[in-house]
Amino acid sequence: MTEERLEKEVNTQEEDNAGEVVSEAENAAEETEQEVTAEQQEQNDEQISKEEKKDKKDQQIEELTDRVKRQMAEFENFRKRSEKEKAGMFELGAKSVIEQLLPVVDNFERGLAAVSEEQKADPFVDGMDKIYRQMMEMLTKLEVKPIEAVGNAFDPEFHNAVMHVEDEEAGENTVAEEFLKGYTYKDNVIRHSMVKVAN
After folding, report:
1. Strands, sheet with 174-180, edge to edge from the N-terminal-most edge strand
2. pTM for the whole thing?
3. Contacts of 161 (CB under 8 A, 6+ apart)
């Protein structure tokens, strides 16, 4: 009996020890699993955090790129507008100067037209003729051109009719005579030709 009891006690003790070992193993396995799960959670959190940071950086880069593009477009528009305004101001100034020069050209033409054949050899007349030609060359370089009038059809965009005349030789609505020469600057009329029109 004693041996049986002893055996039972040993068996019971062994079972208890085995149970404790299993329990300890299970606890250890749970702890390890929890540690692994915690590590995985940390890694996942880190990855999400990196992705969020990456997304924020990408978003900032996109915003800054968009802002730079807009500012460059605004600057380009400003530059074009400035160039256009500058060209407009130059043309306005040139037109004003040309308008003031035209009466001087008219006076040269009137003076030279009044010179007789004998006086044309005079050095003074020759000098005036050279100055007139130089002035006309300068105006041509500036794209100032005289308007063709006599013999052409009357065009209200280029001609200003101050007289009408009945002339069967001239065609109907044709410029018969020019009183004051008109000029264009870059295809814009600076001064209309003052003309007599045949009906």
Report:
1. 159-165, 193-198, 174-180
2. 0.55
3. 154, 195, 196, 197
Strands of the 144-146 sheet, one edge to the other: 144-146, 183-185, 188-191
Distance CA 10, CA 4 (A): 10
- Go through 61-72 and write b for each residue having 16 or more CB atoms within 10 A of its CB, e for each that does not: eeeeeeeeeeee
CA distance 141 to 135: 10
pLDDT digits (tens, 9 = 90+) for 151-189: 788 887 888 888 877 766 666 778 878 888 889 888 788
Retrieve residue 20's tokens. Answer: 């404790």
Q: Tokens representing 196?
A: 């007599």
Query: Strand, coil or helix: what is 113?
Result: helix
Total residue length of the chain: 199
SS3 content of the chain, % helix, strand, coil (to 5): 70, 15, 15
C-alpha distances (whole Å) from 107 to each of 88, 101, 122, 132, 178 are 30, 10, 19, 10, 15
